Amino acid sequence: MTDHLDQFSMGSWILALAVATSFAGLFVGVASARKSVTVHGSRHRASWLAWGALSIGGIGLWLPQIIGMVGLAIEGSPIRYDLVWVGVSIVVAIASGFAALFAVSPAQNRHRTPPRSIELGRLLVGAAILTVGATAMNLAIVSGVQIQGDVEFDIAMIAASAVVSLFAAALVLWTVQAVDARPLRLITAVVAAGALVASHYIAVYALEVSVDPASAQPQGVEVFSILFPVFVVGLLVLTIPITALLMAPDRVAAELDLEADTLAAESADREFERR
Questions:
Q1: Using one digit for the tens of pLDDT, what is the confidence trace for 238-264?
Q2: For residue 156, how many other CB atoms are within 10 A of its CB?
Q3: Which of 36, 59, 72, 216 is most deeply packed, by most CB within 10 A?
Q4: Residue 144 pLDDT grade (very low, low, confident, very high; cuts 50, 70, 90)
Q5: CA 15, 151, 86: angle at the middle one, nearest 5?
C-alpha cells in the first residue's frame, strides 16, 4: 500500500539549522548581487553575480534541503540517496540562482550606487526563473530518495511547494532590486529563509512510499555522507564574498564618489562654457 510519508522527524535543531543556513546564504547573496552594480567592468559584475548565485542557490536554497533530509525516516526501510540526482539538484539550484540574479539585477552605473526602485518586469521574470529552479531542485532531491520499495510523489503537494517558493523568490529578488536598508534586508532574508525551508518540507510530504521487505536493499549514500562535506564547503564559500564585501567601499564612500563625480562634471561644464 502507498501512503504519504509520515515518518518525518523534524527536530527543533534541524529546523533551526536549516533556516539559519538559508538565511546566511540569502543575506550574503543579496549583498553580492547588489554589489555587482557598483563595480567596474563586466567581468567583475559577472563575478559578483556568480558569488550571489552560489550563496543564494547553493547555500540559501540547496543546502537547507539536505539538512532537512536528516529528519527523514521510513519505517521498515533504510534510506539512501542517488548521487546523480543530488548533483542535478545543486546544479539546478545554482544555475537558476545565477539566471534569476542576471535577469533582475540592473545594469552597472557610473555613479556606483545600487538602485532603490522596482522594475516589475525584471522582478517577475527573475521570480519565475528562481521558482522553477527551486521546484526542480526539490523534485530532484526527492527523486534521489532510494528505499526498499517504491517512491512516488503527489503533484498537488509539489504545486503547493512551488507556490511557497514563488513567494520566497519574489521576496529575495525584490530585496536585490530595491532594498538598501540593511535591517530590512535582514528581515526579508529571515522571512524568505523560513518560506524556502517550508517549501522543502511540503515537497518531502508529497512523497508517497510503498515499502516492500522483499525488495533489494537501496543503493546510494547516507544523508550524513553528503551533508558533512557540503556543509563545510558551504561555510568556506560564504567566507569569500563576506570578506570581499567587508573590504569593499561602503555606501558612504560610494555616495562621496558620486558627489565627487558630480562636482567634477559641473566643473568641466563650466570650463567648456567659458571656452
A1: 887 787 777 665 454 454 455 555 555
A2: 9
A3: 59
A4: confident
A5: 55
